[in-house]
Specification:
Strand content: 25-35%
Protein name: N-acetyltransferase domain-containing protein
Organism: Vigna angularis var. angularis
CATH architecture of the largest domain: 3-Layer(aba) Sandwich
Strand order of the largest sheet: 1-3-4-5-6
GO molecular function, one term: acyltransferase activity, transferring groups other than amino-acyl groups
Distance between the termini: 38 Å
CATH class of the largest domain: Alpha Beta
């Protein structure tokens, strides 16, 4: 079968914003027909990558219509045994979308290939992406065609915060940490975790980060002395990335 030729180019916000947002709305994802997620970028399609040290967004264009999009960012992360100092440069593949009416035309694979070429030009050690384990088309594209291997299988849980009806126990205190305290805590307890971001301090200091909180039992002041904290402490961090994950059920 012969397809019309498409071209891949860099995202241009002034001209592409509306079409990219429309494409996002037409490419909702979810585990079933009754539950789906889509990203409302609220007028800033590159909000997910804008605060990374290096980033790129590409679009696929066919007869003046945007039919595909992909985003990528690059940062240093922890990778045990990788010189120097167990740090590696990793490229993150994000937001691969292809218009439902233009799939199976090699648009997705062409976008991935072009993004990986950019990664290579920046001396990236590993490429990394996340997809639903049941998204067979995506799994096949990355694992079968591009040779990616499974690294982790995380779970994303969704619940509207205004539906919470439980009360916090009277024995629990919640306090907000200073940025330096939060950075120390993350580096101490998570710094040796594979793919831990080396720029965690910049992430916490970013204006879109709302803060980091700890929950502890009343009367237990050990959490305030960072050197005495232990892993029984419950920690939560909240950020706003200019995206809204909506769901319907």
């Amino acid at each position: 079968m012969e397809f019309n030729k498409f071209r891949i180019r860099s995202y241009e916000g002034q001209y592409d914003r509306a079409q990219v947002e429309d494409l996002e709305r037409r490419c909702e994802v979810g585990p079933s027909e009754s539950v789906f997620l889509f990203t409302d970028t609220m007028g800033d399609p590159i909000c997910r990558i804008r605060n990374s040290p290096m980033y790129m967004m590409l679009v696929a264009e066919l007869e003046n219509e945007l039919v595909g999009v992909i985003q990528g960012s690059i940062k240093l992360v922890t990778v045990h045994g990788h010189p120097p100092k167990d740090l590696a440069k990793v490229g993150y593949v994000l937001g691969l979308r292809v218009s439902p009416h233009h799939r199976r035309k090699a648009i997705g694979s062409s976008l991935v290939r072009r993004l990986e070429e950019w990664f290579s030009s920046k001396d990236v050690d590993y490429a990394y992406m996340a997809t639903e384990k049941d998204n067979q088309a995506s799994v096949s594209l990355f694992m079968d065609k591009f040779g990616y291997t499974k690294f982790r299988t995380p779970a994303i849980l969704v619940n509207p915060v205004n539906h919470h009806c439980f009360q916090i126990s009277a024995n629990i205190e919640i306090a907000r940490l200073k940025v330096d305290q939060a950075e120390y805590l993350y580096r101490r307890f998570m710094g040796s975790t594979e793919f831990f971001p080396n720029d965690i301090g910049n992430i916490l200091r970013n204006k879109l980060s709302l803060g980091t909180w700890v929950a502890y039992f009343k009367g237990d002041i050990g959490w305030g002395i960072l050197g005495q904290m232990d892993k029984s402490l419950i920690v939560g961090q909240c950020s706003v990335y200019g995206t809204v994950e909506r769901y319907s059920s």
